[in-house]
């Protein structure tokens, strides 16, 4: 008999998780001022992933050692960002699993699990990227397109809302973003011909407040950028968590590729609002502005990477800006109040565009589209920078991101849309005798000028910057490492034994600074002796 619903199990002899002071919207707005906790996917609303803690520094990071290691026991790719509040850590895992963990011992306090239905349309496994928190509640999406609220002290399900029909190709993987009294979520499924959106739900009841479609329908602005009825299967996934500016009351979210991915002949036009950043009014869900990085994308170059909010210096003046290392190989800086294009600069090998024009549109190089026999394009399908979390340090003034450097052969094929079936119409494969490599990059966010680049044989994971002058990351070979935030020099590394895809976090417990990261099925917490 199929297992239905949710299961919560208290760990043997474990006490309930303690949430002494409920998390408020003001708590989240001031999250950067709290060095002890980690309350949202990007640490603060701006998506900085910057810890102000200074116990672990460039001088002593070589002494960092494991404090405890927790085997979750759940296989699959682990891409989560843990949350920390009080004496507890809250962790999601693949296949609809989650746990509350005692910060002292690393033992599970409670466990949550929900069944994974068969027949899901998934490009990349049953991953989940983390919780959001408000009051005494935790919020997470399940892979079969539901949103669930859990009681933080027990893991008890308080409500569950269906987001969409997974049988049509919808799925959910991104950590929610709490804004005011709402839980904001994105969707996945562009490779299955869905029509993407961003949703906001009432945190108390689970009732949907608004929905912003990333692909317009008939009669709406932008529909003229879709040939025929192609908007109905237009893609535009929103599978990485956005950011929020409380002063402007705008939510910023990156939008994924159009569908089908490689065959642009069936969707003539720019295909708004795919491969773009959108700014949405938090109260209404209405579009304030958009900026499209890759019009009429045929290489699967999602613009979903976290849109990081920074204060840039442009022509000697301070500008509220949003920065993104885009999958198409260019770094972008936009005015986050208006969406006006400021600058863009290539950070990896690019052979499809000869730069970005003054209007923000790419200057295309002819004959770089996918072909039936395969056409080499740089960057490859995964892009220069994909989804892995980036970081910004107000101390160094630098923006940090991982990159994959190399090219792939893109091919295209004709494919008819069938509801619930994959609708990619092509693929990309390695270039013979030309393997890709990885790197960690640091740029001046105001100009995109590269300050340092640390090369890696394998692909790096997400990043964490700290006031101790460090940047933490990991790689697919299982090495966790700390780099000097100013120079990029490796100061410490630790072999975890399994591929690392998640970013690290930092917090304090009983007066000690910890660095935590998931590697394979294990959660590791490090501290100084």
Spell out the key features of this protein.
mainly beta, five-stranded antiparallel sheet, disordered N terminus, five-stranded mixed sheet, 529 residues
Can you offer a commentary on this structure?
By secondary structure, the chain is mainly β. It contains one helix and 39 strands. It has one helix at 25-29, and strands spanning 6-10, 50-51, 65-71, 83-85, 88-93, 97-102, 108-114, 132-134, 137-142, 146-151, 157-162, 177-179, 182-186, 197-202, 208-213, 243-245, 250-254, 276-281, 287-292, 308-314, 317-325, 330-335, 341-346, 353-356, 362-364, 375-377, 391-393, 398-405, 408-412, 426-430, 437-443, 450-456, 464-466, 470-474, 479-484, 490-495, 505-509, 512-519, 522-527. The strands form ten sheets. It has a five-stranded antiparallel β-sheet, with no helix packed on it. A five-stranded mixed β-sheet has the order 2-33-34-35-36, with no helix packed on it. Strands 3-39-38-37 form a four-stranded antiparallel β-sheet, with no helix packed on it. β24 and β25 form a beta hairpin. The N and C termini lie far apart (50 Å). Mean pLDDT is 95; it is low at 1-16.
Q: Any chance you could write out the topology, listing elements then pairs?
A:
Layout: E1 6-10, H1 25-29, E2 50-51, E3 65-71, E4 83-85, E5 88-93, E6 97-102, E7 108-114, E8 132-134, E9 137-142, E10 146-151, E11 157-162, E12 177-179, E13 182-186, E14 197-202, E15 208-213, E16 243-245, E17 250-254, E18 276-281, E19 287-292, E20 308-314, E21 317-325, E22 330-335, E23 341-346, E24 353-356, E25 362-364, E26 375-377, E27 391-393, E28 398-405, E29 408-412, E30 426-430, E31 437-443, E32 450-456, E33 464-466, E34 470-474, E35 479-484, E36 490-495, E37 505-509, E38 512-519, E39 522-527
């Amino acid at each position: 008999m199929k297992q239905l619903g949710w299961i919560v199990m208290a760990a043997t002899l474990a006490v309930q998780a303690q949430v002494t002071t409920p998390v408020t919207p003001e708590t989240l707005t001031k999250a950067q001022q709290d060095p002890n906790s980690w309350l949202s996917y990007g640490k603060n609303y701006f998506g900085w992933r910057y810890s102000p803690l200074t116990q672990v520094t460039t001088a002593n990071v070589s002494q960092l050692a494991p404090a405890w290691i927790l085997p979750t026991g759940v296989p699959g790719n682990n891409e989560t960002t843990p949350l920390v509040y009080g004496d507890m850590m809250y962790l999601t895992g693949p296949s609809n699993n989650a746990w509350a963990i005692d910060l002292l011992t690393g033992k599970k306090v409670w466990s949550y699990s929900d069944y994974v239905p068969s027949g899901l349309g998934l490009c990349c496994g049953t991953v989940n990227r983390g919780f959001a928190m408000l009051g005494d509640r935790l919020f997470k999406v399940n892979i079969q397109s539901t949103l669930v609220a859990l009681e933080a002290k027990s893991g008890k399900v308080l409500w569950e809302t269906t987001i969409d029909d997974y049988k049509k190709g919808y799925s959910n993987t991104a950590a929610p973003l709490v804004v005011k009294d709402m839980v904001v979520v994105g969707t996945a499924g562009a490779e299955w011909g869905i029509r993407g959106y961003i949703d906001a739900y009432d945190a108390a009841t689970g009732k949907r407040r608004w929905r912003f479609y990333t692909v317009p329908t008939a009669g709406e602005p932008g529909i003229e950028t879709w040939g025929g009825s192609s908007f109905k299967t237009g893609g535009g996934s929103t599978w990485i968590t956005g950011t929020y500016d409380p002063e402007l009351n705008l939510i910023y979210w990156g939008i994924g590729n159009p569908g089908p991915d490689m065959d642009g002949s069936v969707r003539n036009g720019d295909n708004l609002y795919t491969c773009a950043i959108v700014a949405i009014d938090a109260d209404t869900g209405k579009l304030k502005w958009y900026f499209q990085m890759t019009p009429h994308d045929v290489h699967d170059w999602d613009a979903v990477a976290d849109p990081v909010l920074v204060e840039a210096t442009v022509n000697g003046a301070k500008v509220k800006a949003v920065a993104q290392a885009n999958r198409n190989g260019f770094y972008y800086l936009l005015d986050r109040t208006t969406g006006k294009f400021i600058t863009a600069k290539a950070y990896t090998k690019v052979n499809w565009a000869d730069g970005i024009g003054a209007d923000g549109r790419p200057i295309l190089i002819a004959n770089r589209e996918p072909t039936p026999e395969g056409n080499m394009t740089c960057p490859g399908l995964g892009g220069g920078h994909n989804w892995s979390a980036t970081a910004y340090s107000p101390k160094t003034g630098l923006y940090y991101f991982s990159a994959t450097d190399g090219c792939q052969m893109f091919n295209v094929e004709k494919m008819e849309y069938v509801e619930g079936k994959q609708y990619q119409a092509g693929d990309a494969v390695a270039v013979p005798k030309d393997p890709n490599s990885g790197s960690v990059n640091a740029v001046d966010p105001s100009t995109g000028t590269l300050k340092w680049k640390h090369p890696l044989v394998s692909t790096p994971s997400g990043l964490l910057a700290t006031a101790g002058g460090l940047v933490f990351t990991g790689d697919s070979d299982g090495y966790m490492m700390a780099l000097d935030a100013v120079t990029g020099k490796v100061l410490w590394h630790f072999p975890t034994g399994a591929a690392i895809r998640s970013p690290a976090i930092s917090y304090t417990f009983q007066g000690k600074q910890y660095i935590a990261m998931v590697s394979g099925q294990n959660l590791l917490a490090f501290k100084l002796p």
